[in-house]
Structure to design on (361 residues):
């Protein structure tokens, strides 16, 4: 005989149908509610991503602000300046910056009106965190030989034959081979003291800006408040992993930004550096009809590339760079660099003696 105390309590019935415990029904309702909340959250996140985070104006404003805040970057691109009646210069540039230091490799070609030969230049440059500029010309022999040809052709009034010009060039290069080899393998430096007080002041102000996150944030917030770029076209093909936008400037917002920038800590620091470095809003408050395109990373809103094309009566400019923000390379100032001024003076003395020796033959 079974113990009645161990028997389960009979379930309540309604019209002969057993009723389920209330806690099961409550759990089901809670589960449904949580599922609906989760679905709403997912839909909201998607809407926020596409309607706000992926909003073109938001992406571009963030990209400019992030560029202001960034302390390091790498860039790789090209600059072409057509000076109309004077000539044209093309530069292929690779550069990196990190906390006030920067370096660049420049492969340039200069075409001057009236001169058939292009002037080649392959050089490296480093800007130290104290403002010292270091330069090295990697193709000095080729550069110097080209300049010799141009000088001889110009000074002779076109009377020297190509064979005579090349013979003179080769003879001079042989005579000065030691100086030329040294010139091509030596880092030369220009100290801030040699450039001037205004440059030193500007470097100090820039260093302070780069090391002061609050100062950078202040400028970024000023731009966010007065973002003077608006979207002209958002259907630009992707580049360097970023979404493309063509921008147009708003001069009224630029003017407001300029006025507020001069009262910022960065603007006040620059205003102490003299007329050339002093920030004056009235002198720089206009945006011309230049074409500006930028590419922005969809997730981080970092600047990935830019392209600028400008045109005036005197010159046209084309700038195109792929950019990687918050990434850099090792930047080391050369420890054995020689004074540029002293080195050039020594080279010119060697040139003068070599020229007189060559001309007597």
């Amino acid at each position: 005989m079974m113990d009645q105390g161990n028997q389960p309590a009979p379930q309540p019935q309604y019209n002969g149908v057993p009723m389920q415990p209330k806690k099961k029904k409550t759990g089901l309702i809670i589960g449904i509610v949580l599922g609906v909340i989760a679905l709403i959250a997912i839909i909201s996140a998607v809407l926020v991503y596409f309607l706000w985070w992926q909003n073109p104006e938001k992406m571009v404003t963030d990209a400019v602000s992030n560029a202001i805040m960034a302390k390091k970057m790498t860039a790789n691109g090209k600059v072409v300046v057509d000076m109309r009646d004077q000539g044209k210069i093309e530069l292929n540039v690779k550069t990196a910056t990190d906390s006030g230091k920067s370096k660049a490799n420049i492969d340039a070609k200069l075409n001057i009106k009236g001169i058939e030969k292009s002037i080649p230049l392959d050089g490296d440059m480093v800007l130290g965190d104290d403002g010292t500029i270091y330069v090295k010309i990697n193709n000095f022999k080729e550069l110097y030989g080209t300049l010799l040809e141009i000088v001889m052709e110009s000074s002779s009034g076109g009377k020297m034959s190509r064979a005579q010009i090349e013979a003179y060039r080769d003879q001079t290069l042989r005579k000065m081979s030691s100086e030329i080899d040294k010139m091509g393998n030596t880092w030369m430096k220009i100290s801030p003291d040699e450039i001037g007080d205004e440059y030193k002041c500007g470097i100090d102000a820039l260093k302070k800006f780069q090391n002061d996150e609050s100062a950078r944030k202040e400028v970024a917030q000023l731009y966010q408040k007065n973002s003077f770029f608006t979207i002209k076209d958002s259907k630009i093909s992707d580049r360097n992993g970023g979404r493309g936008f063509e921008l147009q400037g708003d001069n009224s917002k630029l003017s407001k930004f300029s006025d507020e920038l001069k009262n910022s800590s960065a603007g006040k620091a620059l205003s102490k550096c003299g007329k050339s470095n002093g920030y004056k809003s009235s002198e720089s408050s206009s945006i011309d009809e230049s074409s500006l395109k930028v590419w922005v990373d969809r997730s981080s809103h970092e600047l990935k590339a830019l392209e600028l094309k400008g045109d005036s009566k005197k010159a046209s400019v084309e700038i195109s760079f792929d950019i990687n923000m918050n990434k850099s390379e090792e930047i080391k100032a050369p420890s054995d660099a020689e004074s540029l001024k002293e080195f050039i003076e020594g080279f010119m003395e060697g040139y003068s003696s070599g020229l007189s020796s060559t001309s007597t033959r």
Remarks:
- The chain has a mean pLDDT of 80.
- The CA atoms of residues 249 and 287 lie 6 Å apart.
